[in-house]
Write the structure tokens for this entry.
Amino acid sequence: MWQELLKNKYIKDKTLGSCVKKPTDSYFWKSLMNVKDTFTGFGSFKVKDGSQTRFWFDTWVGNKPLKDRFPALFNIVRRKQDSVAQVLSSSPLNISFRRNLLGANLRDWQRIVNSLRDLNLHEERDIFVWALHLSGSFSVKSMYATLINNGITVSQDIWQIKVPTKINFFVVPEKRCVIN
């Protein structure tokens, strides 16, 4: 239910990948946008229709995003935020660079094109596969364990409830008193 709420309020008809932080966004949404790429870095996309997967930024072919595998090409591409569907919408691929491809850049582009030769788009939506859980589905427990195991310390202060006493009375069982 919370996913639908966020989708209807913030994403609407866009993809999560195409959402960017704006000055007018709420603090909550800005915080989510700050961790979006870190979150997607813990998984990969199984491309179906290509509409939800960003060609350069998401991991969908190989084990890293294309922008990290081919940084020189990424630096000269014109439309960095295009989805896989947008790039594959025509033949030759619907992508343009700010300068002609020569030498290593041309060879790298040919490697990308060759890796996409057998890719066929389908009617179904793309699927995000969470790499930190055997089921492929996101879980808070798997994310928390990964953060802790990678040396990120989590202050226990985040678990302290900071609410007025009259509300805290109803929330925290240890602070309840029994009146006879």
The longest strand covers residues 43-46. The radius of gyration is 22 Å. The beta strands are 43-46, 127-130.
